[in-house]
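Dear Dr. L.,

I hope this message finds you well. Following up on our conversation about the binding site, I have prepared a predicted three-dimensional model of the protein together with adenosine monophosphate. For your records, I am including the exact sequence and ligand specification that went into the calculation, followed by the structure tokens. Please feel free to forward this to your student if that is useful.
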Amino acid sequence: MTTFQSLGLEEHLLQAINDLGFETPSEVQEKTIPILLEQETDIVSLAQTGTGKTAAFGFPMLQKIDVNSRTTQGLILSPTRELCLQITSELKLYGKYLNGLNVVAIYGGASISEQARQIKKGAQIIVATPGRMKDMIGRNMIDISKIEYCVLDEADEMLNMGFYEDITDILSHSPKDKSTWLFSATMPKEVATIAKKFMHQPLEVTVGSKNVGADTVTHEYFLVNARDRYQALKRLADANPDIFSVVFCRTKRDTQKVAEMLIEDGYNAAALHGDLSQNQRDLVMKSFRTRQIQMLVATDVAARGIDVDDITHVINYQLPDEIETYTHRSGRTGRAGKTGVSMVIVSKSEQRKIKQIEKIIQKSFIKKEVPSGIEICERQLFHLANNIKDTEINHEIDIYLPKINEVLEGFSKEELIKKVFSVEFTRFYNYYKKAKDLNVEGGKDTSGEDFSKKYSEDSTRYFINLGRKDGLQWMDLKDLIREITDLGKDDVFHVDTMETFSFFNTDSAHIDKVLEAFKGVQFNDRNVDIEISKDKGGRNRGGGKGGNRGKGKGHRKGGGGKRGKFNDDRPKFKGKSRRKESRPKEKGTGGKRRRRM
Ligand code: AMP
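The resulting structure of the complex is given below.
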């Protein structure tokens, strides 16, 4: 077995490695460190984030530089401020026994004069983002004319982010005979071009195979109607009570929206996107690192450089426009030798992308079913049981025991267990008892016998002559029906909007109420017709294409309707809060939503 000693590392580094608790070198370290220690060479190393590549270039650089000199000898360029700070703090840890070592981070969004002051003290190693670096070289605040080692970390990301010009400019100020060490998760043409242009006969080290996702990550996809995306996300979270995840959305708007919906529904979630100030982003990342946030909803750009280990799930709420980006997303989990799951919520029209991604990552996706309500209840129940089993008893409670015993006197152990578990179970049960199957065709009905029976036998399906032509998506229609009928959120279900008409269900007990409520109602100066449909309203009904929430034209005019409810102009239909199923709020049992990981 390879050890850190056998790689040729000096004692001070071995001591730091020991302090950090690293037992054996990772693959990229094993393959890269001996080469970099023994030879003055350029190298291209294809390795994912989380494989230990910082140490793979960090250890050799720390061993080779002269800490007695104040000259800048090593430059590391990385795509984001977060990554830059992470590399800097790792290098400081690795070099803790190197007296006189000064590693300085250079990045945008912070005081340039303070950074210049740090550099002036004599930084042997500079870790920088390209933009700020170029700026400081231009202002003669940094001199890299004597560097011996230059690392281009996450080269593919830097190029993706449009740093090609900046990198070219920066390197033009560095000596030709330096060694360049390029690290990249993927090897697109652009990276190959950089390697050709700036490197001399680089050696190539590949960890796993090129462009391939980490072996520690399992890839799963869930096929749902586009309109059920959010419900599917909640189920995936609820079915994994210990989830610690990054949820990827395509746009800043969606990122913000999904995060807000999750927060409102009682999850520990937050958004991370470019519209937040640096300060806000720092706060979000801090909360995420300390596990206060369980679901970090992020755009691809904002998530670059998220350096948090232990992420259990990456959830692709939407697939990225550039499918290559998927590798970066999934690489946020399964780090540092841990396993992780990358989940993709796809609609039918996006399904072909799964095949394309499989080609890139050279791995198959597992098609999974969105868990049914009953499955989630069961998982939550057993999670609670295990939590109780693992909970350390707090003996501060002891003094209250006699009183508690008095209150609970007369209950058997079995009854007490049932009561304790009912607190949690009932909460989920009530929420999920009418939950429909979110899987679209091809997926078997997983929603549990009891639920489905009750659903079809006791419910009535209605036809209504309003549809998408009226600017109504299913959620708008559900809101309208609820307002007119005064029915609860869970009482109106299976709302399917077609072009000129729609269907919806209620429990049969509400038939009279519904028919009565719609008498004389108008919408857009048109009488609203409602009839009981012969069709009971099956599950998995495709219905409208969904999505486009808030795109309703809002053209509801006044005009003598029965209650006037349909006919007044209410931009609030574009709002979101009333449309959502809201998740049962935490009631303090087990503290499930408070991370204990
Ligand atoms: P990186 O790919 O450099 O971002 O490293 C990912 C994580 O793995 C960091 O938290 C490192 O501290 C950790 N790490 C690096 N090398 C090892 C190792 N040989 N054994 C265990 N953990 C490591």
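In brief: Confidence is low (pLDDT under 50) at residues 209-213, 442-456, 538-597.

With kind regards,
A. P.
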